[in-house]
Amino acid sequence: MTLAEELRERMRQWAEFNRWEAQQPPVERDAGAILADLGTIWQWLPPDVRTADPDPEKRGVQAMQAVLRRLSR
């Protein structure tokens, strides 16, 4: 499968998901339930993934702080 084919397939999948999601009634959920779901998903990840730091120098945090400094001037 070429990259263009993969992209078309991914776009088709997103379009299908968006059609499905638009037909679903909105569900009000308690914040605790949402956090519990996130905790469950986190536990499903392998330990090496949970302990790996993808940004050891915290460049993302540094970039965010730089933007916030500019905005707060």
Describe, in plain words, how this protein is organized in 3D:
74% of the residues lie in helices and 0% in strands. The chain has one domain. It contains 4 helices and no strands. By secondary structure, it is mostly helical. It starts with a helix and ends with a helix. The model has no long low-confidence stretch (mean pLDDT 93). The protein has helices at 3-23, 31-44, 47-51, 59-72. The protein is extended and about 40 Å long. 0% of the residues are buried.
Care to count the β-strands? 0
Structural class: mainly alpha
* Share in helix: over 70%
Number of distinct helices: 4
Shape: extended
Question: How many discrete domains?
Answer: 1
Beginning-to-end CA distance, first to last residue: 49 Å
Q: How can the largest sheet be summarized? A: none
User: Strand-and-helix sequence, N→C?
Assistant: HHHH
Report strand %.
under 5%
Radius of gyration: 19 Å
Low-pLDDT stretches: none
Mean pLDDT: 93
Topology:
Elements lengths: L2 H21 L7 H14 L2 H5 L7 H14 L1
What's a concise summary of this model?
By secondary structure, this protein is an all-alpha fold. The protein has helices spanning 3-23, 31-44, 47-51, 59-72.
What keyword list fits this structure?
single chain, extended, mainly alpha, 4 helices
